[in-house]
Amino acid sequence: MTQNKETGWNFDNSYARLPESFFKSVEPTPVHSKELVVLNKSLATFLGLDVNELRSEDGIEVFAGNRIPEGAHPIAQAYAGHQFGHFTMLGDGRAVLLGEHITPSGERLDIQLKGSGRTPFSRGGDGRSTLGPMLREYIISEAMHGLSIPTNRSLSVVATGESVLRETKLPGAILTRVSSSHLRIGTFQYVANWGNVEELRILADYAIKRHFPEIKDNEDRYLALFQEVIKGQAALIAKWQLVGFIHGVMNTDNMTISGETIDYGPCAFMDKYDPATVFSSIDVQGRYAYQNQPAIGQWNLARFAETLLPLLHEKEDHAVELAQEAHSEFEELYHSHWLAGMRRKLGILNEEEQDKSLIEDLLQIMKKHQADFTNTFRALTLDKPEDTVMAGAREFTHWYDQWHERLARQAESKTSAYQLMKNSNPAVIPRNHRVEEALEAAVEKGDYNVMAELMDVLSNPYAYSPEQEEYTKLPEPSNLPYRTFCGT
Ligand code: AMP
Ligand code: MG
């Protein structure tokens, strides 16, 4: 470990000590000019870094990829993945892992530059990223953190002053991301396909040591690893569903072993409730629609299981049996997280058999009336059913009465029910038009205040503060559906 006294960077490189086929050593490509346009001060402080030093010439050089901090061993990680169902070799084509920063409390976190130039995995790509999408990733990932949803974090964005050619020339940028690791299902797929069983065992042991040290001495630790990843993903995807988050590109290379959300490309939050919602321009079949996310998660976990088979049991059919049994638990796990979360969203503190149908009835009425997902639960939380578009509809009034009868049947007071709802229903989410407005001000005018105000409001979405009121408003109705893009 090497401590950089001034900034506080404290690097170790355990991944770079793994078998050499797992990565390629590669340095970021230097850029000509650089401007630090966003710095996440609270994250920097949490990491034990000195904000003033990070803002200094030397500090910014690190974020720009122009200077390798002492002790860092930059690499591009190899991985494969199923993209929209098709298996292919991938790897970090425009990201470089500087190394793992060890925080003052001893946490090991990956520090990765995204958009830092070509790597041996770039194929035809330029290895660069553009300012708008990097700011968008910053906003959404930090909003997810505010929502208490496991996610990688965003530490900084540097504008490189270079033009990046997409459909037109766009300003280049580099995002610094912080993750508990970048181990993906796709990492296991890469080693299972192109490595040997010994390498697979090394990777699995590494994942266990890093994310689930409590199972490291289990006799059946590889099965336990699979079960832990299932648990993490079931919990994560339930959290996405409960706030209307649509990831947009749930390829196996974008699904982590840690259970964190990564790869904020074409993601967006649902506005009007429709389970078939898709935002991504390339997802023409709706494979990654809101309603499909749990099943896709489970499909991805089956791909993970396939990679683990040689470690689960020496007899393949027995290994398959073990994997299938564990895999089949996903559905129940996911469902119980979802149901518990929906109960909380409705202020329900105990369990009744009919809760599920009460919840489903509401969702169905919301769908019929195209009610805004976030604002419906916000209105219920504020006890203002009249604020929803469903107000006045007989079916909604009937549902509302039934719900209140349900709340009256639990021992806890309505006050505690409403408090629970306040803690479970975000008052604000990164609404698409607000995100676009912040990006436009930043990219077109160099004005970062709009984004800063948005970030402030999103940092505690459960505050129900007066400042948040303005951010709960819906955009002017538009006939055009919102579209998102990846690989930008
Ligand atoms: P993503 O859609 O971000 O998950 O990326 C899929 C794959 O494409 C990964 O291997 C990326 O590293 C690679 N990739 C995306 N954009 C670029 C780019 N501009 N240059 C090189 N590789 C890229
Ligand atoms: Mg990816």
What does this structure look like?
It is a single chain. By secondary structure, the protein is α+β, with helices and mostly antiparallel strands. Among the domains are: 2-179, no CATH class; 185-339, no CATH class. The protein is 43% helix and 14% strand. The chain has helices at residues 41-46, 51-55, 57-64, 131-146, 185-194, 197-211, 221-243, 293-312, 316-327, 329-345, 355-369, 373-381, 394-408, 414-424, 432-445, 449-459, 466-469, and strands spanning 2-3, 10-12, 23-25, 35-39, 75-77, 80-83, 86-89, 95-102, 108-114, 129-130, 153-165, 169-179, 245-246, 268-269. The strands form four sheets. Strands 1, 2, 4, 8, 9, 10, 11 and 12 form an eight-stranded antiparallel beta sheet that branches. The chain has a two-stranded antiparallel ribbon with strand order 3-5. The protein has a two-stranded antiparallel ribbon with strand order 6-7. Strand 6 and strand 7 form a beta hairpin. Helix 6 (197-211) crosses helix 8, helix 8 packs antiparallel against helix 9 (316-327) and helix 15 packs antiparallel against helix 16 (449-459). The chain is globular. The mean pLDDT is 97.
